[in-house]
Amino acid sequence: MFDFITEFMQSGGYLAVFALMALENIFPPIPSELIMPFAGFVAARGDLNVIGVLIAGTAGSVAGALPWYYAGKVYGKERLEKFADKHARWMTVTHGDIEHAMDSFEKHGRKVVLFGRLIPAIRTLISVPAGLAGMPMGQFLLYSTVGSLVWTGILTGAGYMLESQYERVAQYVDPVSKAILIGLLGWYLYRVATFKKRAKAQ
């Protein structure tokens, strides 16, 4: 996986970074915790510019958040809750989860969008209550961009600093990245398996 992603970024350049980060926010095939450190690593080798990587990664992250924002804004709370109830088991999101997200957004407002972009489990879903609450697009873009820039900056910086340790990085990143992907799949399957129990508890 290490070689695949770095080669993909080298051949695809900034567009590849943008696309991977956008997809990660819509449906995460590869988490940003792997994408941006790899991008920073490629930049440190001189194949990409680190500023360009930051811009592409941040732009991709924000672009990937927009479909969720519009889903909340266009569908509305009632229709989204009906959709969640209908497909709740496979989405692993219940009527109550949406209510909880809305309560958090109404309580903390714009801070939730800003700081939520820094939290892996919340980064994508925070866009939904922002759309449901009718948060102005300008504000949503501003806070999402600032939060995403901080997050991508931290991850890119970590990858950039590891460039001098190429041999050691190549040895441990592959098993770690595979473990992360397996962990994400396991978490999803656990959510599906325990859905009825969690739904009754709400």
From TrEMBL:
InterPro entries: DedA_domain, VTT_dom. GO terms for cellular component: plasma membrane. Keywords: Cell membrane, Membrane, Transmembrane, Transmembrane helix. The chain crosses the membrane at residues 12-30, 50-70, 140-160, 172-190. It is a multi-pass membrane protein. The keyword Protein biosynthesis does not apply. Residues 30-161 form the VTT domain. Pfam families: VTT_dom. PANTHER family: ALKALINE PHOSPHATASE LIKE PROTEIN, UNDECAPRENYL PHOSPHATE TRANSPORTER A. This is VTT domain-containing protein.
